[in-house]
Amino acid sequence: MKKVFNIIETGSDAREIVMSFIDALNKEDYELARSYVNDDFSFVGVLGSRFGADSYFKDMSKMRFHYDIRKVFAEGNDVCLFYDIMMSGQKIFSCGWYQVKAGKINSFKVIFDPRPILDSEKS
Questions:
Q1: Of 2, 17, 41, 86, which has fewest CB within 10 angstroms of its CB?
Q2: 11-122 in CATH: which number?
Q3: Residue 102 CB-density burial (10 A; 0-12 exposed, 13-18 middle, 19+ buried)
């Protein structure tokens, strides 16, 4: 009988997975970044949500965000990042919560104040 083991990442393993993902995004290596994400990945953000890794990466390859990490917190399968990101010509302070499952990022939620972006779009 074949044994099946549940993979539970330690905080440092989950942290390494998320930081490798961010590094790949910063290098605009979307194929490598995609390798750190589950197929059923979900993204929930202030300005919208994406369900499925392919949908998320289709948008990310257009936006080409670069993350300037300020602080990383990791506990178990959860990793939280504080970072600055350039959006619509604005440096936006954001917080991202990543959840790792079976060695890959399964979900990502981001919060930030969208007013600078929304105000620049009105102009």
A1: 2
A2: 3.10.450.50
A3: exposed
